[in-house]
Automatic annotation (TrEMBL):
Membrane-spanning segments: 38-63, 84-110, 144-162, 174-197, 217-236, 248-274, 305-329, 341-363, 383-401, 422-444, 456-474
Species per Swiss-Prot/TrEMBL record: Clostridium aestuarii
Membrane topology category: Multi-pass membrane protein
Protein name, per record: Transporter
Subcellular location: Membrane
PROSITE patterns listed in its UniProt record: NA_NEUROTRAN_SYMP_1, NA_NEUROTRAN_SYMP_3
Length: 483
């Protein structure tokens, strides 16, 4: 079967940045920044992006581009007789599960967009907004319908293929996203009292930063750059050998980070200007911001623009999540793209229904003490995403080996890469250790041991695990070389 490729540099950048820039940037980044004290959190986040995010992104691009295969096929090609393909299966499954609930939140955004455009949202009294939001997400049918709309729109793009669907759509939507963001930023920073919000965002106060905040920054850097679930690997597999993937990874990382910061510049000056709290958590965009827009001149117009912005960001990300699964199904099961996309969409829709109902009728239906939405979120964010991430680091760093990754980054000598030592250290040691710390912390092992196990001790344990994995990796390499 002939594989599709991206057609232009700008198209690749728009698609990869479109994937990275999502609800994570415009919804989650501002609210976790708000909860963790603003600028100090941002500095830690930037360090995580450079030390962990960028090396992992480079590795994923290289693995995908080297093999021109889906996530499972890529590992199978590079280590045919070893069970490394399971790592691809972990990533594809993670993308599938994440999409099943990411589409629900995107559906809430679409619902707010339609309510805002029809003038309903702006008429809700600020003290009723919390109940209004609660009523929307707990109402059985409406969120299901909006989730379906999101999945169908996503499928409509994916079904057209990489060049005609994903690339064209990203090249069209990403400039619109940027223009809306700039318009909203200008609106926000010109409000009276906006400077308090800018100060909150850019003046570090380290006394607000906790260990939990640092871990959250690390986890979010991964989430925001779409790493650990084979998205970047799959997009990498549609990139031509001659492209400079280091430059591309740097561009995507910068774009993702800039857009998150710009979203902060839209949100915090406005929140402070109207005397509201920056730390309201996940409700920030659905509860706090509508109150801000209500108080603002031409608020209805800016509110609609804002939800359109998040809608665009969300859809370019759902497209990439779906592409991971569709690429896997088409190539591993030898199925046409159309049929694969329809089947994947139906399966996703079926899986999303219990999660949608978690906010209403099924809120008390629990497994392991969690409703479906929380359970899927927990399993992916805390277990399978870090697992996929560590496996990519170990595979790229120790099994396939940094020499091969660097060769691929350099396009066999075409684009000299002068950071190879730093990259190798980051991917072999820093990134897997960092991800393992998040993992151990988030699955609650820290609390479980309750022996005052410190982060330092965890680093040592993590280090030992990496060394064992490395030794095992070297041994298996030697064995396969001898064969
Ligand atoms: N990186 C995108 C975001 O920040 O919203 C999309 C995304 C992909 C989010 C994968 C989460 C995820 F696990």
């Amino acid at each position: 079967m002939k594989r599709d490729n991206f057609g232009s540099k700008l198209g690749i950048l728009a698609a990869a940045a479109g994937s990275a820039i999502g609800l994570g940037n415009i919804w989650k980044f501002p609210y976790i920044t708000g909860q963790n004290g603003g600028a100090a959190f941002i500095l830690v986040y930037l360090a995580c992006i450079v030390l962990v995010g960028l090396p992992v992104m480079l590795t994923e691009f290289a693995l995908g581009r080297r093999t021109h295969r889906n996530a499972v096929g890529a590992f199978k090609e590079l280590e045919p007789n070893k069970p490394w393909y399971l790592s691809g299966i972990v990533s594809v499954t993670t993308a599938f599960i994440i999409l099943s609930f990411y589409a629900i939140i995107a559906g809430w955004v679409f619902s707010y967009l339609s309510r805002s455009a029809s003038g309903k949202l702006i008429n809700v009294a600020p003290d009723k907004l919390e109940d209004y939001f609660g009523a929307i997400i707990s109402n059985g049918t409406e969120p299901i319908v909006w989730t379906f709309v999101v999945l169908v729109v996503t499928a409509g793009v994916v079904i057209l293929g990489v060049k005609t669907g994903i690339e064209k759509c990203s090249k069209f939507l990403m400039p619109i996203l940027l223009l809306i963001l700039i318009a909203l930023m200008i609106r926000s920073v010109t409000l009276d009292g906006a400077s308090a919000g800018l100060e909150f965002l850019f003046k570090p106060d380290f006394s607000q930063l906790t260990k939990k905040g640092v871990l959250e920054a690390l986890g979010h850097s991964f989430y925001s750059l779409s790493l650990g679930m084979a998205i970047i690997m799959t997009y990498g597999s549609y990139i031509d050998k001659k492209e400079n993937i280091f430059k591309l990874a740097v561009q995507v990382t910068i774009a993702d980070t800039l857009i998150a910061l710009m979203a902060g510049v839209v949100i915090f000056p406005a929140v402070f200007a109207y005397g509201l709290k920056p730390n309201s958590g996940p409700g920030l965009i659905f509860i706090t911001l509508p109150a801000v827009f209500k108080a603002m001149p031409f608020g209805a117009f800016f509110e609609t623009l804002f939800f359109l912005l998040i809608g665009i960001a969300a859809v370019t990300s759902t497209i990439s999540l779906m592409e991971v699964v569709v690429a896997f199904v088409t190539e591993q099961f030898n199925m046409g793209r159309k049929k694969a996309t329809v089947l994947v969409t139906l399966a996703l829709f079926a899986l999303s229904i219990p999660s949608t109902l978690s906010f209403g009728a099924w809120s008390e239906v629990k497994m392991f003490g969690k409703n479906f939405f929380d359970l899927f979120d927990y399993i992916t964010a805390n277990i399978s995403l870090p697992l996929g991430g560590v496996l990519v680091c170990v595979f790229g760093g120790w099994i396939w080996g940094t020499k091969n990754v660097v060769k691929e980054i350099e396009s066999d000598g075409l684009h000299p890469f002068s950071w190879s030592n730093l990259y190798s250290f980051a991917i072999k040691v820093v990134a897997p250790l960092a991800i393992m710390v998040i993992f151990v912390h988030s699955i609650g092992l820290m609390e479980y041991f309750k022996t005052g196990l410190s982060t330092n001790a965890l680093l040592v344990v993590g280090g030992l695990v990496v060394l064992v994995l490395a030794a095992w990796g070297l041994k298996s390499r030697r064995t396969s070389n001898e064969e």
